[in-house]
Model the fold of this input.
Amino acid sequence: MIWCVEDDKSIRDIEIYTLKSTGFEALGFSNGTDFFKALENHQPELVVLDIMLPDMDGVEILKRLKENPVSENIPVIMATAKGMEYDKIQSLDSGADDYLVKPFGMMEMISRIKAVLRRCSKPEESHILKYGSLVVNLEQHTVTLDGKRVMLTYKEFELLHLFLSNIGTVFTRDVLFNRIWGEEYIGESRTIDVHIRMLRHKIGKYGEKIETVRNVGYRMEGAE
Done:
């Protein structure tokens, strides 16, 4: 059962219709109060949660879900307004599994839901990524090098996370834009180069492991 929390009835009805027509059971709520009342008796497989709601905003609802041991493992996809970078970051930092940028297509919503459900059905992976003495804690969103804290920006952290999760994989600039900045971002390839250069500098001896693949993009070499 997929629950959609959206105060715009026309959008909510389309979401419910699309979910049901693609084989999901679905239920809609116009506000947080009704959502939490229903949650007392049932649990959804996943929640599509709008940020702008009449009684409480979506981030507040998300935080309440993640603070409760009973509901903390329910996957949540946030619906954010176009261009609201802060909403995306706050949602992800608060425990959201993914986000959709309004206005979004219904097939994109279905694709994202299926992807999150696939990820959540897999055995839980470690929140720690280690690369020699470089340690990334995904849960705490921290990085340490030789036991000392390394301060990275949000984008630098996401780049490092992507590289360490895919050792040896070459990422083109277009793929990096899509994965880190989002499909709606319009920018120059130099943006990638600047962030890579800063990341290399901050992670010291491991910076040289981020290899430039000429005319293609970047990859993280395997640790020695």
Q: What stands out?
A: The mean pLDDT is 88. The radius of gyration is 19 Å. Helices lie at 9-21, 32-39, 58-67, 85-93, 106-121, 154-165, 173-181, 189-202.
